[in-house]
Amino acid sequence: MTRFPDGFLWGVATSAFQIEGSLAADGRGPSIWDVFPSEAGETGAVACDHYRRWRDDVDLLASLGVNAYRFSIAWPRLLPDGFGRVEQRGVDHYSRVIDALLERGIEPIVTLYHWDLPQALEDEGGWRSRDTAERFVEYARLCFDAYGDRVKWWLTINEPWIVGLLGYLHGLHAPGYRDDVRGEVAVFHHLLLAHGRAVAAYGGGGRIGIALNLCPHYPATDDAADVEASNASDGYVNRWFLDPLYRAAYPDDMRRRYERLVGELDFVHDGDMAVIAQPTGYLGINYYAPRFVQAAPGDAPWPWRVIVPDEVPTTAGFTGGIPHTDAGTPVVPRALTDLLVRVRDDYGAPPIVVTENGAVYPDRVHDARRVAFIRDHVAALYDALERGVPVLGYCHWSLLDNFEWRLGYAQRFGLVHVDYETQERTVKDSGRYYAALARRNAL
Ligand code: FCB
Fold first, then answer.
1. Is this model's pTM higher than 0.90 or not?
2. Are 63 and 438 in contact (CB under 8 A)?
């Protein structure tokens, strides 16, 4: 039996926009996602109706036996205009949720920004504008003041890379810009700056960090060009965020690539890097899948391509016949061990919480593949613990099937099935499995 350390956090994760609905309730202001439909034309107007059903959902969490719950606060509920006027009903809502969690012995892990930027701030330039980082700190302070006596785990920003990649380069996420490389890299910088300033504003009493989605990289072949392409892509996805956070500098190779494309990165001001590199209490890592990279010299903006290989050369040797989730994502648990060990080796062993990990499987209740997915990823995490990586917790994505951004309601990630007609919740086999795992604190 593999026993986890005492106090290990067994959590599930959600985000406000993906589950709450009730977009006009209690004075909430509009966000950039309200008007950004999924590919099938769906919106988060109802989602899991969680804003109204939150009490039942907290009971559901308790029934799953988890000791942590990662959720996000909707900025536009607290500050409908993005800054200034405070909507007390929004403040009170999350206060009640936090109390209900604590009463049931569930540690709240609060994400401040999970993509639902107030529309009023987008109208002023959104994350392209440095001012948005200042607005974010005002919002973060409000949250620290309102909830800091009870919340001990904070996450500033969720997945800055995805915000830029899908929101500014591919036009797949709000605010929906395309091919804007300069916008992307400016947004990355302002998100990191917002993180650093919020960390500086945090008065302590708990831990604060950022949630990065990191992808372990593997070259598609041993060919020198593929090895170089894989390292370059790692610079884009991983080092562009880890280096400033832990080394107070952007990686030179990637900085040169950006400068060749968009000119001087003049939005990086003196002193910014020290702000971004503020010491934090932990690092949140969202892990879904590795990237297998092939050189693609003619491709723009980046000369590499992510491929879906037949076998994967992890540090444990080649894994043949890779399974895929229903979203087409390769399932490679071993890559999670590689990733955690690498962050320890390269970045000075920050305490880590795996803040997301999960898979799309359509099975209504008997989701054997999700059970296997959880077991294998938790085992991979355990291997990293055995190798001395300080991992403090694991949050499965997600508690509920929910609004999966551009993929809408078709892609189900939940431990709990949601019938969107009736809003009925049904715990899947994976939910039962996870509950048992959390209770035993052992695999
Ligand atoms: C992550 C997001 C989360 C959810 C999962 C599937 O990128 O943080 O909101 O969409 O992917």
1. yes
2. no
Q: Compute the distance from residue 271 Cα to the ligand 1 centre, in Å.
A: 31
- Ligand 1 centroid to Cα of residue 405, in Å, is 8
Tell me how far the alpha carbon of residue 107 lies from the centroid of ligand 1, in angstroms: 21
- Name residues contacting ligand 1 (CB within 6 A): 15, 18, 158-159, 162, 213, 286, 356, 397, 404-405, 413
Nearest CA to ligand 1 atom 10: 404
pLDDT 10s digits, 344-364: 999 999 999 999 999 999 999
Decide if 238 contacts 215 (C-beta within 8 A). yes
What digits encode the pLDDT tens for the residues 398-442? 999 999 999 999 999 999 999 999 999 999 999 999 999 999 999
Given phi > 0 = left and psi -120 to 50 = alpha, else beta, which region is 171? Answer: left
Closest CA to 10 of 300, 320, 396, 269: 396
Residue by residue, what is the 3-state secondary structure of 63-118? HHCCCEEEEECCHHHHCCCCCCCCCHHHHHHHHHHHHHHHHCCCEEEEEEECCCCE
